[in-house]
Amino acid sequence: MQYAAHNPLIAQSDHTVLLEVDNPRYAEARDGLARFAELVKSPEHFHTYRISALSLWNAASAGMKADEMIEILVRFSKYEVPENVRREIQEYVARYGRVWLERRGDALVLVSQDPSLMEEIERAREASRFLQGRLSDREFQVLPHMRGHIKQALIHLGFPVEDLAGYVEGAPLDIQVRSLTLSQRPFHLRTYQQDAVDAFYAGGSARGGSGVIALPCGAGKTIVGIAIMSRFRTHTLILATSITAVRQWKRELLDKTNLTEDQIGEYSGEMKESRPVTVTTYNIMTYRRRKTQEFPHFELFTKMNWGLILYDEVHLLPAPVFRVTAEIQACRRLGLTATLVREDGCECDVFSLIGPKRYDVPWKELERQGWIASAGCMEVRVPLPPPLRVEYSLAEKREKFRLASENEAKLPVVRTLLERHPDDLVLIIGQYLRQLDAVARLLGCPMITGSTRSVERDRLYEDFRRGRIRRLIVSKVGNFSVDLPDANVLIQVSGTFGSRQEEAQRLGRILRPKDDQRQAHFYSLVSRDSNEQDFSAKRQLFLTEQGYSYSIRDVSEVLQGETAAVGFA
User: Domains in the chain and their CATH numbers?
Assistant: First the structure.
């Protein structure tokens, strides 16, 4: 029934949508709304979503129609959907593909069926400097090397460009996915992984070949990347977050494809190999001795005849790599991520330079299908001891956050939680090294930080995978691309302000499904009545949107042993 009082949703004329949590239709409405809106606040009873231009364009690029979006609003709404919201959804969705790029011989041409829009683009200073000349009232020739720049300019003007100009083929490389891994285990793509590959490939047409695949950690983004490489069969450059991630990519490629050791190169601080498939890090690509110098390793982007560039954890893309990516738009580009959330607001640059979101799937849907582990999330609120409360009250805002994050009263909570999980594989993760040192001294656990030598880091990770150690402390280097499949408990003692993507990545560390179907447990320790508690509410937004809820517990409940009784909400 439409516009019924028992429905959970209220669409407002300012493009925000309120969603009632304590409503039987909440989950169904949330899953529909999340396809084209972004969660911005999640207090107890009503969650607030925002319908933005970018959220609509990402939905449109994935094939969602304006009428579908409006139908979802109408179906779950308590009241009539404001007319301006309906109209603006239709208008913004219609903007996607209203301007497109195509290749004509060696010429790059910007095309639209709307002459008045082309007049507007020609007069816009942000865009006109990339135009080489007018071909007709509906066509402009674009400077060939400015393909990325014109797309950036036009998305900021409110007109996302559909790039149909095609791509260079790159040097051929016979990449085939194995049916048996090196250890003779059967291997094949899961249905959703195959769907993601097909969405990116788009039948080999110009509509495919660039964009982002968003899947939760543990759902096999690396496998999707490998399968896409096997579709295009071309020289590939892979950018990853760390040397650990580089070597994991290499292991997976050797295990699941016909590629050999001499076809896969590592380009890092330790070795500089350029091979048909080369895996490097964002850090080495953005290294330079002084800020006034050029980036010496950028030559890798053009050194080989790449047919595909793969950006792992694309939401972390640093600004210098954005800039060089704007110059190499003729190469296919694949972004892999768990979440497109960027705290710097540069999602539009990911959209215009890497490509739109081609595929995603709700995390809870993969959990229901058994592809990722079920997880309970608990926030444990710890008071500031009286002396620290005085120091906190006198500190500046940033210092307040550090003091609250490093609250020494969290240490006995960590020890108590470990006592509750004697047989589990537990990761303890935090932002501040001094705090992690204190935890390591208290527990006698090994620790990995950014300064840990890669040999020692690999050894500790391997010991953890093998169960030789069951407790491991990691700094923020553990946020990304660490394959620890049996980890099932994570204790977060501190984080990076209100980073939604960090919260998602950290939960992802324990989401690989367990052979014994054990539930994963994610504990976040937060100082009560502090700005850390405020930032924590923001950190949880993305995961709330995906269907996770945090039970809130006072530290007294944990220390007195009540957590097991109350369980997870």
Answer: 9-95 (no CATH), 99-164 (3.30.70), 191-361 (3.40.50.300), 369-566 (3.40.50.300)
